[in-house]
Amino acid sequence: MLSWLQRSLRFLLVLDTPVDRRTYCATGFGLAVVKYLGDATIIGLFARTLWKPTGYVLTTHSLLNTAIPNAPPWLMPVLALWTVPFLWIGVTFTMRRALDAGRSPWWALGFFAPYLNYLLMAGFCLVPGSSRNAGRADGTFPTGRWLPSALVAIAAGVGLGIGMVVLAVLGKGQYGVTLFLGTPFAMGALTSFLFNVRYNGTTGETVQVTLCMFAFVAGSLFLFAFEGAFCIAMLIPMALVVGFLGAAFGRAIAQCGRRAVPPAISAMLLLPLSLALEPPKTTGQIIHEVRSSVVIDAAPERVWEHVVAFRPIPEPSDLVFRAGIAYPRYARIEGSGVGAVRYCVFSTGPFVEPVTAWEPGRRLAFDVASSPDPLHELSMYSNVSPPHLHGYLRSRRGEFLLIALPSGQTRLEGRTWYEIEMGPEIYWQVWSDFLIHRIHDRVLEHIKFEAEDKSQLREGS
Length: 461
Known about the structure:
Elements lengths: L1 H12 L7 H27 L12 H6 L9 H26 L15 H11 L19 H26 L5 H22 L4 H21 L5 H27 L5 H7 L2 H8 L10 E9 L3 H9 L10 H4 L5 E7 L6 E6 L2 E11 L3 E5 L25 E12 L5 E11 L4 H28 L1 H7 L1
Antiparallel strand pairs: 1-7, 2-3, 3-4, 4-5, 5-6, 6-7
C-alpha cells in the first residue's frame, strides 16, 4: 500500500514525464471528483451549506474569491490550502500533456486564464500524442556562466512583474487573481527558465535567483513609491510560495531541453489576456464579519457609557499599529438614540457612524457612512497612497453587544462587517480579520479599563 502511494505521488508530482491524453483525461476527471467531494464535505460539515459544482464556473477566480455563508473564520483558509495541490497538479499535468502532444509546455500557463482554461484542457484531451515528445529535445546541456544568466533572468522577471502591476492597477484598477497568483507564478517560471536555459543551475541556485528577482520587484515598488513596506510585507508570503512553484515549472521546461526563448516570451502574453478576461466584481460582494469579546468586571449600565463614547486611548506600543495600520484614538457622539452620529476617530481620520440601534445597557449598532484610509504606508516618502487604500477595504457597519453575566460582570462583544475588493479574497480576508481583531482588542480593552476604573466611580458619586 505504501509503495503504491509513493508511486502515485511521484506520478502526480514529477515534472519531466509526458502524459498521454487518456491518462490526462482520466486523472483530470478523477481529481475533479475528489476535489469536489472534499470541498462539499468540508463545507457541508462546518458551514451547513450545500456546495454545488456550478460554484466552479470561473474555476480559479470564483473558487478563490468565494465566501461561504455561515462559515467559521478558519474554513476559507483551510479550503485554500486544500486547493493548492490541485492547482499545482493541474498546471504540471497540462505541461506534461503538452510535451506528449509535441506542443510547447508553456501552453500550461493558460491554466490560469478564465474561460480559456476549459478550452485548453478540452483540447489536450483530444490532441493525440506526438513522436516529438520523448527525452531531451536537443540532447545538449547549457554551458553558460552563472552571473550573466542570473542577471538576464532577474531583469526579465522584474520587467514582467512591474509591467503587470502597471497594467492591473493603473490600467484596469483591479487587484485580482491574475495579479496576485498568475503573475508571481509566471515571474518565477520565466526567471527560472531563463536562468537554466544557459546555465545548468541546481535547485538551490534557482531558488536564490528567483528570490533575488522578487526582492528587486519589492524594492522597485517601494523605491518608486508605488507601494509601502507594510503592504509589500503582506503580499510576500503568497507571492513567494506561488513564485517558487512557478520556478519549479520553468526549471523543468529548461531541463526537458525546450530551451527556445521565443515561446517563453510569447507565453507571457497570456497574463494581459487573463487580466482582460478576469471577471469584474468577483470580489467585494460578500460581507465578512469579525467578532471579538472581553469580560468586564462591571455591570452593563456602567459599561454602556464607555461604549457610546470613550476617552483618548494611549498611543499604541503594538508593532502592528506602529507599522502603519490605522488605530482608534477616541470616540465621541453627537445626539442620543437612533439617528445620533458617533465619531470613532482613528489615526488616519474619523469613522462617521450613524446609530441604527440604541438599547442602553444592551446593544449599540451603527452603519458606516464614511471611513478613513485603513493604514498609513511605511515609506521613505510622505505621500505614498496606492489605489488599494481607497475603497478596496470597506467597513459597512458595526455593533456592540452587552451581555449581563450571573457574576455581575459584562461580556462585551464588538462586531464589524466589511467588504474587501482584492483577490484572492480568501488570502486577504485572513489579513483583514487579523488586523480588525487587533483594532477590536484595542477598543475593548480600553473600555474595560475605563469601566473598571474605581476612581471614576468615586468621582461620579
